[in-house]
Design brief:
The chain contains 13 helices and two strands, in the order αααβαααααααααβα. The protein is mainly alpha-helical and 332 residues long. The chain has one domain. It has a two-stranded antiparallel sheet with strand order 1-2. It is globular. The two termini are 34 Å apart. The structure holds zinc ion (2 copies). The site of one zinc ion has 6 residues, from helix 11.
């Protein structure tokens, strides 16, 4: 399981790309289907089977609304705002985003930021909390049961001095409860006790299932499958399905290449709802100092990746590492 780490050898980064194998494409499609699409289809099937018995339009509206809000809490709040400081938020926006992120049940804000910073610092190398080099299942879910040992005093010491962040982190369980109380209450208001139950089921638990698997897919799928647009010293990849479901987080190779960028979708066709949200907040003057990748830097990194933006097999990836370049770093 952890043979790569214990051996002390550098990770075999390009070999993870199953698309390089003769049967790679079939295998690729099968795994992506299992990990990301099948649970969604199963949920759709459950909806059909239970229609007007245990699921109603109100339940789906609750599911869609809460999924969107919580996903933005994780992507815009926990990830781009808190961990990478991609923009400076209005204090009210900061509070709302941190609360929404907390409702994802992915740990308190400070712990999340510490773990993610450690991931960037050691991506696909010994010490990475959730690298698929320790096994795909480990990267997706197993790592949660392991000791990640990401000490906030090492990885995000500045957050320990941020009173708002400390407050939201210390009251984490309150926001977790809110993730269940809100759909239960709204469902109850709309349909009595039966509505409260189905509201909790779809707006609470199914929403949670989707949020977890989409987030975990960034760690597992996007370090295993998909295309690499930029040369980085990790196995990060762009996977459009996760990009779609994760509101832009699936453009993960872009993100590892430019960690501070507020926008993970770097091409017009790369759907990035989190990025659009940050742009909207900026227009509304609720966000400032939005970090954009300088066009010259983007062009230089694209050229370095082989001219067409795709790293060819055998490219000297570790040499053209994603080590922070001037104006570009993991945190600030
Ligand atoms: Zn990553
Ligand atoms: Zn990140």
């Amino acid at each position: 399981m952890s043979n790569v780490r214990s051996s002390g050898q550098p990770p075999r980064l390009p070999s993870l790309s199953l698309t390089h194998l003769p049967v790679g494409r079939l295998l690729y499609n099968a795994v992506v289907l299992v990990v990301v699409v099948v649970p969604l289809l199963a949920t759709a099937l459950a909806i059909t089977l239970l229609w007007e018995r245990a699921v109603h339009w109100a339940d789906l509206a609750l599911l869609a609304t809460l999924y969107t809000l919580v996903a933005l809490g994780v992507t815009v709040g926990y990830h781009r705002m808190l961990t990478h400081r991609s923009f400076r938020p209005h204090p009210a926006v900061k509070l709302v985003l941190l609360v929404l992120g907390s409702m994802a049940l992915e740990g308190d804000a400070i712990t999340w930021a510490a773990t993610h910073t450690k991931h960037h610092a050691l991506a696909d190398r010994p010490g990475d909390p959730h690298s698929p080099l320790d096994g795909f299942f480990h990267a997706h879910l197993g790592w949660i049961f392991a000791e990640t040992d990401a000490d906030p005093r090492t990885y995000c010491r500045h957050l320990l001095r941020d009173r708002l962040v400390v407050f939201v982190s210390r009251t984490h369980l309150l926001w977790v409860a809110l993730a269940l109380v809100i759909p239960f209450s709204v469902g109850g208001l709309l349909g009595g006790w039966a509505g409260a139950f189905t509201g909790l089921l779809w707006g609470g638990l199914v929403r949670q299932f989707l949020t977890h698997h989409v987030t975990w897919s960034v760690n597992s799928v996007c370090h295993t499958f998909g295309r690499r647009a930029f040369a980085t010293n990790d196995a990060s990849r762009n996977e459009w399905i996760v990009g779609l479901l994760g509101f832009g987080e699936g453009w993960h190779n872009n993100h590892h290449a430019f960690p501070r960028s507020a926008f993970h979708g770097l091409r017009w066709w790369q759907f990035d709802l989190a990025g659009y949200t940050i742009r909207l907040l900026e227009r509304l003057r609720l966000a400032s100092d939005v970090y954009r990748v300088p066009p010259a830097l983007l062009a230089r990194r694209t050229r370095r990746a082989g001219g067409n933006g795709v790293v060819l097999p055998g490219a000297r990836e570790r040499e053209t590492a994603s080590a922070p370049t001037p104006g570009e770093s993991i945190l600030a």
